[in-house]
Write a structure and sequence with these properties.
There is one protein chain. Helix 14 packs parallel to helix 20. Strand 16 and strand 17 form a beta hairpin. This protein has about 775 residues and is of the alpha+beta class.
């Protein structure tokens, strides 16, 4: 037999070799070290275990995601052809080197990373579209309504533009997202005409903050804005696309279910019931939504793995139970596989009905892989399952890797699968004893399992919640322990029965029953949020600690040998790095008319010419500051007159905001830093950050080091990506309407849809 052939004619990998100092040969290059061997021998043996055949497969999505992250770090947009060619070359090199035990895994990892880089580069080129980079007022838009979102204080629509008229636009965006007055949003599939004020998609509010413009670019949206006046339903110039027809049908179904639920269950309970069934979760009131986040119950509002598992599990159990009741049928037919097919159909319907967000897609793919494993008689829930789901999500939506939803959902799922694959300690020790049987009968295992799952999932998502939302949930395990049994055994089953009973008109009692359970869950969330220390505030830190912590989490979950504990050490190092992150002394908003200065008390004082509350909220949250934007102490130490304002740093130095040209003479003489939305005089002796710097760099964070300034921009010099083009100081102007588009005579059907400024959201 050839040394490369194994038993039963199966192909082996590499011939076993036993280096000096090792005992029995182990596949690849290491065997178990003899007693008393050097520590390096143990490390080498453990490394051999980690790279043994089949062990590296779960690492492929990690490498793929790493390549996508590298794309987002680039200063300029990569080119598709070289990226694809490099990925193909590495794949071929890996195939050629498959018999080399060291080169092969390294080449496979490099090929996967380059494949991720090429995928996101191709996706960006495929969806390339114009993006507005300056404000434009009095813009006439005619187009199709593709998306409608209902929110607490205003509604929002996404319009696919057919015709756009404005004198201040060079490139007309293909899709725009417009905020409208509450209740005035037209239905999906309608062709509308309206006047709007458009703005560039919002840039990061601080260096390292979330990039709304990048997010909207990958959604195909080139501008945001708000409606001015009425929205008119117009005659369409042509038939809608098949996709729009499908979207209109699904949206009509979701609206019908939403109306039935809210008619039976008013208030926040109805909003949450609709969120669990249709995915419409934007109408939940602010205080309750905040309490859900503080208590770590916000995951209930986003349809993800838990909801999909409940729906598929209930359908699987019921179908299998009903088929098993037929005498002799279960012995002759594969009812388990038929039940899996029924559960997959139910999960697919739930995916379409709920709006198919990233978290829902991920959970659907996971569920599909699990049910597929049942169909082919394989183990269902493994690290390979989540790896395959991650690869599929990243192939379809590679931009999701930088989204909090993707990061938190996969981190929680990875941590749970890794923990359960290694077995629960109390179950493995006591399961086959009389004491274990009594413990199981009392339900202790179930309670302990719920606590364990909440703790593991909470720890897995904590780094991402701290990075994106600057908070932790100290009482998350308590809230989940009290609320999740209600959600599993009461709320979700009642909702599923209500959905089934709706066509027959018997759904109202079931919606009310669902609402009663939700009221109980809401009471738990509000109570937990009111506990002392319920909000764990975390100051902002950079992407470095987050990436290091992610590497530690992946090592801890994917490795099998004792080397996995190096992941725990990596996480500790990431925590120390995050805690050592210095806070900025000055923050400047992208508009240049809002400045935060850290005073002698260590807290921020806000100098503002306009009220950008969203930037203020983000700054306070990133500073772990519990004050609200209306707190009068934010103005402590701020002095203003008719031409500008100033505040003092901790060392007594003056920071000035010049709102008028007359202010520069005095501010340049007295201040160490002058900020202005105007152009500063070149002879100003102080450090000046004026309009030209703001246009290039966006938001700025500064630290005072001695007499010098360390400046960190949101957009580094030369940064030129499709969602953040390098901007000239002067904005260009004109745009002409499409001559081929007819101008139908609109028939006004709605009232004034202009939303109030106070009703707009942070990304409007």
């Amino acid at each position: 037999m050839s040394p490369r052939r194994g038993a039963r004619g199966q192909a082996a990998t590499w011939p076993p070799r036993a280096p000096a100092g090792y005992g029995p040969a182990f596949p690849w290059f290491a065997g178990r070290p003899r007693f008393g061997a050097a520590p390096f021998a143990y490390v080498r043996f453990w490394l051999a275990e980690e790279v043994a055949p089949g062990r590296l497969i779960p690492w492929l999505p990690v490498a793929f995601a790493t390549g996508i992250l590298v794309y987002f770090v680039a200063q300029h947009e990569p080119i598709v052809a070289p990226a694809s060619a490099l990925a193909l070359a590495l794949i071929l090199a890996a195939i050629v080197a498959r018999a080399r035990p060291i080169a092969f895994p390294l080449l496979v990892a490099a090929a996967a990373a380059c494949a991720g880089f090429a995928t996101i580069t191709f996706k960006s080129a495929l969806i390339a579209h114009p993006v507005l980079h300056h404000a434009a007022g009095d813009v006439t838009i005619a187009g199709w309504v593709e998306v409608r979102e209902e929110r607490e204080r205003s509604d929002r629509i996404v319009v696919k533009v057919e015709r756009l008229e404005s004198r201040r636009l060079n490139d007309a965006p293909e899709r725009v997202r417009v905020s409208v007055r509450k209740g005035q949003a037209p239905p999906v599939g309608a062709f509308i005409e309206m006047q709007t004020r458009l703005d560039a998609p919002r840039a990061p509010l601080r260096p390292g903050g979330y990039d709304f413009a990048r997010d909207l670019y990958f959604q195909g949206i080139g501008a945001t804005g708000r409606a001015l006046g009425e929205i008119k339903i117009a005659s369409p110039p042509h038939r809608p696309s098949l996709w729009l027809v499908y979207a209109a049908v699904i949206e009509s179904m979701r609206d019908g279910i939403d109306r039935r639920i809210r008619a039976a269950v008013p208030g926040d309970a109805g909003s949450i019931a609709s969120a669990l069934i249709t995915g419409k979760r934007d109408a939940i009131s602010g205080p309750l939504n905040e309490a859900m986040y503080i208590s770590s119950l916000a995951h209930v509002l986003s349809i993800s793995g838990y909801h999909m598992a409940v729906v598929a599990g209930v359908v699987f159990f019921l179908v299998r139970a009903v088929l098993a009741l037929i005498p002799g049928f279960a012995l002759r037919r594969p009812i388990k596989k038929w039940a899996a097919l029924a559960a997959l159909a139910a999960a697919t319907f739930y995916l379409l009905l709920s709006g198919a967000e990233v978290a829902t897609q991920r959970s659907y793919y996971m569920t599909a892989f699990v049910l597929g494993a049942v169909l082919i008689d394989r183990q269902a829930l493994t690290l390979r399952t989540i790896g395959a789901a991650a690869i599929l999500v990243l192939l379809l939506a590679p931009e999701a890797v930088v989204h909090p939803s993707f990061q938190m959902s996969f981190a929680a799922t990875l941590a749970l699968i890794a923990a359960y694959e290694r077995g629960l300690p109390w179950k493995s020790r006591w399961a086959d004893t009389p004491l274990g049987a009594r413990i199981a009968l009392w339900g202790v295992y179930e309670i302990a399992g719920l606590i364990f799952a909440s703790l593991v999932a909470g720890l897995g998502t904590t780094p991402y919640a701290a990075y994106h939302f600057h908070r932790m949930a100290p009482y998350g395990v308590l809230a989940n322990l009290l609320a999740m049994p209600i959600v599993s055994a009461w709320i979700m089953p009642a909702g599923m029965l209500g959905l089934v009973a709706m066509p027959f008109g018997f759904d109202d009692p079931l919606w009310r029953l669902m609402g009663m359970g939700i009221e109980w869950m809401n009471a738990i969330a509000m109570w937990v949020a009111s506990l002392p220390g319920a909000v764990g505030r975390i100051p902002a830190f950079g992407t470095g600690p987050l990436l290091l912590c992610t590497a530690g989490l992946v090592m801890l979950c994917l490795m099998r040998s004792p080397l996995r504990w190096s992941g725990a050490a990596t996480i500790v190092a990431a925590i120390l790095w995050a805690l050592a992150t210095p806070l900025p002394d000055v923050l400047i908003a992208p508009s240049g008319d809002l400045v935060a200065v850290r005073g002698a008390d260590g807290r921020l004082a806000i100098i503002k010419k306009s009220g950008d509350v969203f930037a203020m909220k983000e700054w306070l949250a990133a500073d772990a500051d519990a004050r609200t934007t209306a707190d009068p102490s934010l103005a402590n130490g701020v002095a203003c007159d008719g031409i500008g304002c100033n505040a003092r740093l901790a060392d007594g130095s003056l920071v000035a905001l010049a709102t008028s040209p007359e202010a520069f003479a005095e501010d340049c003489r007295r201040a160490v830093l002058v900020v202005s939305s105007r152009s500063a005089p070149p002879a100003c002796p102080a450090m000046t950050l004026d309009r030209s710097v703001r246009i290039r760099s966006g938001a700025l964070a500064l630290r005072r080091i001695g007499n010098a300034w360390e400046i960190k921009p949101a957009r580094p010099d030369g940064y030129d990506r499709p969602w953040a083009r390098t901007r000239a100081a002067s904005a260009a102007s004109s745009s002409t309407p499409d001559p081929g588009a007819a101008s139908p005579k609109p028939k006004p059907t709605l009232r004034d849809a202009t939303p109030k400024p106070a009703d707009l959201g942070p990304d409007d």
